[in-house]
Design brief:
Layout (H helix, E strand, L loop, with lengths): L2 H6 L5 E5 L5 E5 L8 E5 L2 E4 H17 L8 E3 L4 E4 L11 E2 L5 E6 L2 E6 L8 E4 L31 H11 L2
Parallel strand pairs: 7-10
Antiparallel strand pairs: 1-2, 2-10, 3-9, 4-6, 5-6, 8-9
The structure holds zinc ion.
Length: about 170
């Protein structure tokens, strides 16, 4: 183990600015190599029970105001979650994409946004929000613009179900 290494390691520079996907987004200021930890997703550590309560409240806010991001709660483990709906969490501005260039990962109790591709300077950083597929999927339309955009923000695992639902709606 080299715990010091990750602390002193260079973190790529990113900027918050207007995004064509939704409101504001986070953009790379420099080339970011695949596998790089881009930014930590920080927030308030809460219990899983408290997280359930807040999730409902956050979804309700989102329903009333689409500009309000949907859910900022991340599962750390079975007992604890991080509520990233705090001003000091820059990573909360990262947009969802159906063809993202980053993903989230929990490493030693911390949530990181990690590049899954080489990211060019100026490119917007995105990840798949990983929402469950349930009756409320229409509350989360996607405008990511990717060729494979599913039109709604849903975790990859549920794409077959989403496709089925969209097909039957169009009949
Ligand atoms: Zn999309």
């Amino acid at each position: 183990m080299h715990p010091r290494k990750s602390i002193t390691k260079h973190m790529p520079k990113v900027t918050l600015r207007n995004s064509s996907i939704h409101n504001a987004g986070i953009f790379a200021d420099e080339h970011i190599a695949e596998g790089t930890r881009i930014i930590q997703y920080v927030g308030e550590k809460i219990t899983a029970k408290e997280a359930e309560r807040r999730k409902d409240a956050q979804l309700e806010n989102h329903r009333n105001d689409q500009d309000n991001g949907a859910v900022y709660i991340f599962e750390l483990n079975k007992r604890y979650c991080i509520d990233g709906n705090v001003s000091y969490n820059t990573a909360r501005h990262i947009n969802h994409s159906c063809d993202p260039n980053a993903e989230t990962d929990v490493i030693r109790g911390k949530i990181w946004i990690i590049a899954i591709k080489d990211i060019k300077a100026g490119e917007e950083i995105t990840y798949n929000y990983g929402y469950d597929f349930d009756e409320n999927y229409k509350d989360h339309p996607c405008r990511c613009g990717a060729a494979n955009c599913m039109s709604f923000i849903v975790h990859y695992d549920f794409w077959p179900q989403l496709q089925k639902a969209l097909k039957s709606n169009n009949k």
